[in-house]
Amino acid sequence: MLRSALLLALSIALAGAGSLARAADTIGVEDIRFERSLADDAWMLWARFQLPIDDKIEQALRDGVSLHYVVEFDLTRPRWWWWDEHAVEARQVHTLSYHLLTQQFRATIGDHDVRQFATLAQAAQAIAQVDGWSVVPADALEPNTRYEARLRLRFDRDRLPRSYQLGALTNNDWDIASEWKRFTLTTATPASAR
Fold first, then answer.
1. Which helix (H) or strand (E) covers residue 21, if one does?
2. DSSP-derived secondary structure letter, 43
3. CA–CA separation, 86 vs 133, rounded Å?
4. Which among 171, 179, 130, 154 is positioned nearest to 23, based on CA atoms?
5. Domain ranges across the chain
6. Sorting pLDDT into bands at 50, 70 and 90, what band is 194?
């Protein structure tokens, strides 16, 4: 009786440890700010994620593999009489790579922002941030309207080289993503309409 109770307690503890190890591979959402910029006449997005870095990621980078992460932002307008209207679907690719000659890690945000870092932790921190991303022109959203927004960061394993993709298909270690973070936005009435 005591032995079976100990085995049951051990199996529960091991199952819990496995779920904790899996949770450590998920991307955490730490902060989101979405606001209208009068200077850019657009709605801007700022976000900060917690990106897990482990030995398999560092080894892939040192093997010359570029790792691509995708920031996904969706904005919908709820309608009670019809399906929700998809107002915005925006994607931005963040790429993490390693330059063998300079022995530096490289973070590429979008198509143009490239930065060099001495450590993987610094490069990962740059990859895990969205700084002033213009996701939608200000006049594209209806004034005085409520929108539902969602945001996440996910690893794009489809961009891995074929040799890595074969392992990624049978191994969930490369299935890294944050949960969809949802928030509500209500646009203001323009001053000229008041």
1. helix 2-24
2. E
3. 19
4. 179
5. 27-187
6. very low
Q: What are the b/e assignments for 168-186, b being 16+ CB within 10 Å?
A: beeeeebebbbeebeeeee
CA distance 79 to 160: 39
How many angstroms separate the Cα of 51 from the Cα of each of 23, 69, 72, 141? 12, 10, 15, 31
Separation CA 132–CA 40 (nearest Å): 10
Model confidence band, residue 25 (pLDDT cutoffs 50, 70, 90): low
* Residue with tokens 């005085």, as numbered in its chain: 144
Token pair 């980078």 in the structure block, residue: 61
Regarding the domain with residue range 27-187, which homologous superfamily does it belong to in the CATH classification? Immunoglobulins (2.60.40.10)
Q: What letter does residue 194 receive in the DSSP assignment?
A: -
- The CA–CA distances, whole Å, from 92 to 16, 24, 85, 112 equal 35, 24, 22, 11
Q: Which two tokens stand for residue 66?
A: 């570029």
Instruction: Say which amino acid occupies 24.
Output: A
The pLDDT of residue 173 is 64
